[in-house]
Design brief:
62% of the residues lie in helices and 12% in strands. The protein is built from 23 helices and 13 strands.
């Protein structure tokens, strides 16, 4: 207390104000008294919340402790069950050795099995008696087991220990690494045959003992949870009732004060004037009216002309009709207030500096009876600009918060390495799009080519975002594609220039901001993980089984393993069933190799699901498996020659639809399209914006997927082979060179149709 007094006095001295010791002490007492008053005022709430937290914490601790005990009992049950099995296995092994002892190569395996069962049984029995570490049932890490201390368990062990000592004596000759004789195996076999059942029964009793103990602990935990949750719930409702009671009292006080404030503002802070029956503004009005409208020409003005300075003619006409209603007899003003056209209306006001300013004004009308049948209207004008803008900001902030929360929930499951790569890839992609938008000379020379490049880059980034299940980012890219498509349609009607790309620039800026937000989240999550010592691991970093895949997935590089989840999401969205087979992508994959192939795989996967794989009914009619079959494989030789294969058993290329699309876009004439071979049509599908999809959806319909694949193949110097049979399959083969030292390979482009 003396330290606090000295500190308080020091504050007074440093502020160059001098007080006596009594003044300092009095001030300190006032502060302590204020704290005591605040605690006394909210004492009930503080105590209730503290009790609520204590109850929850108590239940949590009890749950944690008892769960650990139950888990330990489960291990004991498993170990005791194994003991039962081992007694049978040892008996079986001795009989086997006895029957086959003349064949050295036959009974040696039985002898090894007997010795292994013998050692496991002995070690487990030792742990039951003395406690210690023992290998778990599933062969995992050793587990620590406490010695059995329950009376019933000790009683069983007291019977089992001497019996096991006899087992040891009988089996001791067989534990030596020598040939087994009749004098060794016959007594052991006879002893185990006669004593196997008693030992089995003892181990069975021990198992049941452990089960009963686990059941008692489970019942205790359940009861404790019910009691704790019940008490916490009761306490919660007490807090809620008390809080609502206080809140209601404060609301009433606030409402009274608000009414008083409104009355003061209506006479001082707002513009107030009278309208006579001729709708002319009276000579008396509040000075705030001049401030609101930035004019002194108010008195004697026609209300219609006055409004005409600031509002559109339609608004003025509606307003005059509305005001005239107040002069009609038997009109209830409360009933017509809801149709007031001058409620929170936007006005354009010219200031004394001839600057046009946008304001939001709120007009209210109140009829007055002046006697002798004369009526007037009291008009109150409020400048609600700040309020409107604040509401708009609050709404925008709420939308941004909702978007950020949605984005955060989408980011959390993504592994950090994949998220970092996505951020880097997106940044580079945005930079390339930005460079295209800034190249005004190239835009003027070839507007359509610029749009195609931007569309391919956007489609690639959308695929990468969708592969990580970043739906918000994928939707932004889809919206950017909508803008690109709209510009493409406009360019067919009139010539466009760089100015018409402004909507794309705005969208790109929004995408940059979203990417910056993702980077911030990534940084914060990384810092959090470094503090608590944990990281967020994606579910697809572990072994998993894909619905319909029919088996366990091998250890595959994490980024490629995520294709299973992506394929399942896309197929589910399209109402399809799909089996994916990945080969040659075992972890760890070389990062540069993944960077080359992963974007291609994403685009081909989207193409296969959108255009290739049929629904279950169609596949049934075609006598195909119910689930679509998709193979993605990678192989290479020692010379760095790689072969990337992508194959689906879907409907294949629709050559007729491609011909129709090429003719409709003016790329080929009807005669040229009729003469075009299947190889020619496939080349057009990869080089022109051709889509056989009637409607545009998030994964297809824009005709940029395959041209993007072709650009990616060219960027790695690859060769593409395509083989497709309608209603049977499509097979893509990409051959390229890749060296571990990241040497650049020359770009070679060749397309050919195999078969």
């Amino acid at each position: 207390m003396s330290v606090i007094v000295l500190w308080s006095c020091h504050l007074f001295v440093t502020s160059e104000t001098y007080f006596s010791a009594s003044d300092c002490g009095e001030n300190l007492l006032n502060r302590v008294g204020m704290f005591a008053f605040m605690f006394g005022k909210y004492r009930f709430l503080v105590i209730s919340i503290a009790l609520f937290l204590v109850l929850d914490l108590g239940v949590l601790v009890l749950n944690f402790y008892t769960s650990g005990k139950i888990a330990e009992q489960a291990e004991l049950i498993n170990l005791a069950g194994r003991q039962r099995t081992l007694t049978q296995q040892m008996s079986k092994a001795t009989l086997y050795i006895k029957a086959q002892k003349l064949q050295m190569w036959v009974y040696q395996s039985g002898l090894d099995e007997l010795r292994e069962h013998y050692k496991t049984f002995a070690d487990t029995l030792r742990v039951f008696n003395d406690g210690g570490a023992i290998e778990s049932i599933d062969g995992g890490q050793p587990i620590e087991i406490q010695a059995v201390v329950a009376p019933q368990g000790l009683k069983i062990l007291e019977q089992a220990n001497p019996l096991w000592k006899q087992f040891e004596d009988a089996l001791a000759p067989l534990m030596v690494d020598t040939l087994v004789t009749d004098e060794e195996i016959d007594p052991a076999s006879a002893f185990i045959a006669s004593n196997n059942a008693p030992m089995f029964m003892l181990m069975d009793e021990l198992t049941e003992h452990f089960k009963a103990s686990a059941e008692r602990q489970t019942v205790f935990l359940r009861r404790a949870q019910i009691v704790g949750i019940s008490l916490a719930t009761i306490n919660f409702f007490i807090i809620l009732f008390h809080f609502l009671k206080q809140l209601r009292g404060r609301d009433l006080k606030i409402k009274v004060k608000q009414n008083e404030s409104d009355q003061i503002l209506s006479t001082i802070g707002d513009g107030v004037f009278l309208l006579d029956k001729n709708l002319v503004i009276g000579g008396q009005y509040s000075r705030q009216l001049e401030t609101i409208f930035s004019t002194k020409r108010v008195s004697g003005q026609s209300f219609k002309r006055f409004l005409g300075r600031y509002f559109a003619n339609k608004t003025v006409g509606l307003s005059m009709d509305f005001v005239k209603l107040y002069f009609r007899p038997h009109i209830n003003s409360a009933l017509i207030e809801d149709v007031n056209p001058l409620k929170r209306v936007e006005a354009t006001i010219t200031t004394e500096d001839d600057e046009a300013v946008q304001k939001y004004l709120d007009f209210s009308f109140a009829p007055l009876n002046q006697g002798a049948g004369n009526r007037a209207i009291l008009v109150t004008v409020k400048d609600v600009t700040a309020q409107i803008l604040l509401e708009a900001q609050d709404e925008q902030a709420a939308d941004e918060l909702e978007q950020q929360m949605s984005l955060l929930t989408q980011i959390l499951p993504v592994p950090y390495q994949e998220l970092d790569y996505f951020i880097q890839e997106s940044t580079q992609g945005y930079d390339r799009i930005n460079a295209l938008l800034k190249d005004t000379k190239h835009i003027a020379d070839n507007f359509e080519n610029t749009l195609n490049k931007i569309a391919r880059e956007t489609h690639r980034l959308k695929g990468s975002a969708a592969a990580l299940n970043l739906k918000w980012v994928a939707e932004q890219h889809h919206a950017l594609e909508d803008n690109i498509e709209a510009l493409r349609e406009q360019s067919k009607v009139k010539k466009l220039s760089g100015r018409n790309l402004l909507p794309l620039t705005i969208k790109l800026k929004s995408n940059y901001e979203s990417l910056e937000l993702i980077s911030q989240f990534r940084c914060r999550l990384g810092n959090y993980a470094s503090v608590v010592g944990t990281t967020v691991e994606a579910a697809n970093d572990h072994q998993k089984t894909l619905s319909g895949h029919g088996g366990e997935i091998p250890e595959i590089d994490g980024k490629w393993l995520s294709l299973y989840d992506y394929a399942e999401r896309l197929a589910t969205d399209q109402g399809l069933s799909l089996d994916v087979d990945l080969r040659g992508f075992e972890a760890p994959m070389e990062p540069t190799l993944t960077e080359k192939l992963h974007p291609i795989a994403i685009q081909l996967l989207r193409n296969a699901i959108a255009h290739g794989i049929e629904d279950s009914d169609t596949r049934c009619r075609l006598k195909k498996p119910n689930n679509g079959q998709l193979l993605i494989a990678l192989s290479h030789d020692r010379g760095g020659n790689y072969r990337f294969t992508f194959q689906d058993d879907g409907r294949g290329f629709d050559y007729a639809a491609i011909r129709v699309e090429l003719v409709s876009k003016g790329i080929l004439t009807i005669e040229q399209a009729g003469r075009a071979s299947s190889g020619d049509l496939i080349r057009h599908a990869f080089m022109d914006t051709v889509s056989t999809q009637l409607n545009t959806d998030p994964i297809s319909g824009r005709g940029v997927g395959l041209p993007l694949v072709w650009q990616l193949i060219k960027s790695i110097g690859g060769r593409l082979k395509v083989r497709s049979v309608e209603r049977e399959f499509t097979h893509f083969i990409i051959e390229f060179e890749h060296q571990s030292n990241e040497r650049e390979t020359s770009t070679r482009t060749l397309m050919e149709r195999a078969g």
